[in-house]
TrEMBL record:
InterPro entries: Preprotein_translocase_YajC. It comes from Nitrincola nitratireducens. One of its GO terms (biological process) is protein transport. It is found in: Cell membrane. This is Sec translocon accessory complex subunit YajC. Coiled coil: none annotated.
Length: 108
C-alpha cells in the first residue's frame, strides 16, 4: 500500500531517484549473471564442441559415465570405443567428457 503514500523528503535532501536506483540494481544484477553464469557456461560448451569435432581414430577418451577407451570408429553422431581387447562399446559423441594423453590406458 506504499504506492498510495508519497515519500517525504527533508528540504533539499531528495537523494537518488528510486526509479534510477532500481534500474542500476537490475543492470548490476544482469552483469553479475553474465560474468558468473552465462559466460563460463558458454566457454565450456565451446570447448566441448571443439573436443567432439576434434576426435580422431586412436584417441584415448573418457566418457561422462567414467568409461575409458580408445576410439576405433567415428560417425557423425556416434563414437565406438574399445574398452578392452575385443570389447567395443558405442556412445553418442556428446557423452565424451575429455581426451586423455596418449598412453594413459597402458599405464592403468
Amino acid at each position: 500500500m506504499s504506492f498510495l503514500i508519497s515519500p517525504a523528503y527533508a528540504d533539499g535532501a531528495a537523494g537518488m531517484d528510486p526509479g534510477m536506483f532500481n534500474m542500476l540494481f537490475l543492470v548490476g544484477f544482469a552483469l553479475i549473471f553474465y560474468f558468473f553464469l552465462w559466460r563460463p557456461q558458454a566457454k565450456r560448451a565451446k570447448e566441448h564442441k571443439a573436443l567432439i569435432n576434434g576426435l580422431a581414430k586412436g584417441d584415448e577418451v573418457i566418457t561422462a559415465g567414467g568409461i575409458i577407451g580408445k576410439v576405433t570408429r567415428l560417425t557423425d553422431a556416434y563414437v565406438v570405443l574399445e574398452v578392452s581387447n575385443g570389447v567395443e562399446l558405442k556412445f553418442q559423441k556428446a557423452h565424451v567428457a575429455a581426451e586423455l594423453p596418449k598412453g594413459t590406458i597402458k599405464d592403468i
